[in-house]
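Below is a filled-in request sheet from our internal design queue. Each sheet records the structural input a requester submitted and the sequence that came back. We keep these sheets so that new team members can see what a complete request looks like end to end.

REQUESTER: design group, bay 2
PRIORITY: normal
MODE: inverse folding
CHAIN LENGTH: 431
BACKBONE (tokenized):
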């Protein structure tokens, strides 16, 4: 149905030209598709659940701008609203009414968020959240979990997931000095014993930051008691609990993972969906903590494009769609349609593989039957994944080009495309 029709000649030319002027030809490393052995896809356009490359090949897209596009590409309502805003002016570096509207919307939706500050990327949101936690508690140490990715600020680039997982796991990136990560403590996810032991001896902890549903080592589900333990232990020693909901926020439900598991973090980081496909992110939480940000407090944060009105409009229009009755039920049903046949094939053929899922995000892991943390993923086989990726790619399906990432289903995925994808996956699994 969607098999790639045209040789990727123009895409290849663009890529090779880009390599002359952009390191690796891309502006974010995973896009280079190196681990799956193809030249990167060069996208010209996207509509609904389809992207089209420079050679006119179309692909069903499960990257969805890494989760930002929960409504799909070029959604008419978002286009109309953002074009209208662009007509009024695209950036002022001065406060605009739309910032207040989106802030009030998020505050009304998420009980743990009493105030919110907008920034331009998830990296800035988490970087600011830990600075705020340190400024508020006057403590130094940050606890994170291996395989959780919080963007590329220095202090959080320790045993990070996603594309950074390919770098040296301890130092993580050249250029990050030992001093910068000396106050970052990394633990295995879901390991309650290690967490208790740390909290018994270390008193200088400003905050624990985590993806409550990690998606950057592939989708890993938190043990409910693990999140509860994090909440009680941080409260006990006066450290802050920071949920990085850059992926899970507005994705697994209107109130994100915190709504799903009934845990109230002190601070939450948002990104992706909150900008509706434009560069916006945010951190929000208790008033008492948020008011330590400048200009009220002594913790500095700023940004030329922070709260950019075009991104704010896109975010607000997106959230209005998500609020429609039945939205998340529909997302659940769409994802069931894709995932259930895959799970059936794994079960019936007793395959050493599994699907781990939260709402409309999931990962198909090869080589493991369950994973609770990054340490459980040592048996996954990158070569097998590369072959699987290419099998789908040749059939006009684009999935994130790393096994340890999430697939993103959008509201725009049609039943026909979901069924076709499921068939192609099952075909590969049972060949
Ligand atoms: C959970 C999480 N936090 C933070 C980030 C960083 O966000 P950005 O890429 O917008 O800087 C990402 C990016 O994928 C993410 O998945």
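RETURNED SEQUENCE:
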């Amino acid at each position: 149905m969607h098999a790639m029709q045209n040789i990727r000649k123009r895409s290849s030319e663009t890529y090779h030209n880009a390599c002359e002027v952009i390191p690796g030809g891309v502006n974010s490393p995973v896009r280079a598709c190196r681990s799956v052995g193809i030249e990167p896809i060069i996208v010209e356009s996207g509509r609904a659940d389809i992207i089209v490359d420079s050679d006119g090949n179309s692909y069903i897209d499960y990257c969805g701008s890494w989760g930002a596009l929960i409504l799909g590409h070029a959604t008419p309502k978002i286009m109309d609203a953002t074009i209208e805003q662009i007509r009024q002016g695209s950036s002022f570096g001065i406060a605009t009414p739309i910032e207040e509207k989106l802030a009030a919307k998020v505050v009304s939706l998420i009980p743990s968020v009493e105030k919110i500050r907008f920034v331009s990327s998830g990296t800035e949101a988490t970087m600011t959240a830990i600075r705020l936690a340190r400024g508020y508690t006057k403590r130094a140490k940050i606890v994170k979990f291996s395989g959780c990715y919080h963007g590329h600020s220095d202090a959080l680039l320790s045993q990070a997931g996603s594309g950074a997982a390919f770098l040296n796991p301890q130092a993580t990136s050249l250029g990050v000095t030992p001093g910068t990560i000396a106050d970052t403590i990394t633990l295995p996810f879901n390991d309650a014993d290690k967490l208790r032991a740390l909290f018994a001896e270390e008193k200088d902890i400003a905050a624990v930051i985590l993806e409550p549903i990690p998606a950057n080592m592939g989708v890993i589900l938190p043990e409910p008691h693990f999140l509860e333990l994090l909440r009680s232990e941080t409260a006990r020693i006066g450290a802050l609990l920071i949920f990085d909901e850059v992926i899970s926020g507005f994705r697994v439900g209107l109130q994100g993972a915190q709504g799903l598991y009934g845990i109230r973090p002190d601070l939450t980081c948002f990104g992706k969906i909150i900008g509706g496909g434009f560069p916006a992110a945010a951190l929000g939480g208790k008033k008492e903590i948020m008011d330590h940000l400048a200009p009220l407090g002594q913790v500095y944060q700023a940004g030329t494009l922070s709260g950019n009105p075009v991104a704010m409009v896109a975010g607000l229009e997106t959230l209005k769609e998500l609020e429609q009755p039945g939205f998340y039920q529909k997302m659940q049903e769409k994802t069931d349609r894709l995932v259930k046949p895959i799970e059936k094939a794994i079960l019936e053929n007793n395959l050493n593989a599994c699907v781990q899922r939260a709402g409309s995000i999931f990962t198909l892991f090869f080589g493991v039957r369950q994973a609770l943390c990054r340490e459980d993923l040592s048996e996954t086989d990158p070569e097998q994944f590369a072959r699987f990726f290419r099998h789908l790619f040749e059939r006009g399906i684009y999935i994130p080009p790393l096994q340890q990432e999430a697939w993103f289903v959008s509201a725009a995925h049609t039943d026909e495309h979901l069924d076709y994808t499921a068939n192609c996956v099952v075909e590969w699994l049972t060949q």
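SHEET NOTES:
- Residues 66, 121-123, 126, 149-151, 211, 216, 244, 246-247, 271, 281 surround pyridoxal-5'-phosphate (CB under 6 Å).
- The radius of gyration is 21 Å.
FILED BY: M.R.
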